[in-house]
Write a structure and sequence with these properties.
Length: 203
């Protein structure tokens, strides 16, 4: 029962979800789809992007039990018919979320370096956030609905009927993939390597 990991991961997920979902909404808005703006998603206010199951309950349970990490924010609704570029525009909207995680990882790394000698506890927290932010960027590129990577399938013109079938079992597929394969381990290792690389740049 890892209570410390649960509190750490959930609080960081709240912090990281807002810029991730805001990035989706902002790019969609810039590409001509007013759906996110009408639904109040073009904002960095965290509560606008929280999905209580995906942003709090499930990540808390998986972290508490030491069963890896699984979590997400409230999906941003978009209308491909309003997006400039159609499905290609949808791909840009999808990529904006993981890209924001990478950008935010650099911001957190800078904060960790600056505060390391002044506020070590905060520096450690920010450093953990770097790895989690990169992990979320990698995890969200998994090509299973509702994750961001699945939108790239639509941009690649995968038949809608195939996408809809994937969407029906997307959550189960994610659970099975993380529980029965080494995908979770490799995503964790890759995020750790990227974290070391980012801190190496600051040194």
């Amino acid at each position: 029962m890892n209570l410390e990991a649960a509190i750490l991961n959930v609080s960081l997920l709240w912090l990281l979800t807002a810029p991730h979902e805001f990035a989706h909404a902002w790019v969609a808005d810039k590409l001509g789809d007013d759906t996110p703006r009408r639904e109040g998603r073009v904002t960095l206010y965290p509560l606008a992007h929280v999905d209580w199951l995906g942003t709090t309950i499930l990540p808390a349970i998986t972290s508490l039990l030491g069963a890896g990490f699984l979590g997400w924010g409230k999906p941003v609704n978009t209308n491909p018919a309003q997006l400039r570029g159609g499905l290609n525009g949808l791909a840009l909207v999808a990529l904006a979320g993981p890209a924001s995680n990478i950008v935010f990882a650099f911001i957190l790394a800078a904060a960790a370096v600056v505060t390391a000698g002044l506020i070590p506890a905060f520096a450690e927290y920010a450093a953990h956030g770097v790895r989690l932010s990169l992990y979320l960027a990698i995890f969200n590129m998994f090509p299973v609905p509702p994750l961001d990577g699945s939108k790239l399938l639509l941009a690649a013109r995968v038949p809608v009927v195939v996408y809809e079938e994937l969407a029906r079992f997307g959550f189960i597929l994610m659970i099975v993939a993380l529980a029965a394969t080494d995908i979770g381990y490799w995503m964790s290792q890759l995020s750790w390597m990227w974290t070391q690389g980012i801190f190496g740049l600051f040194r």
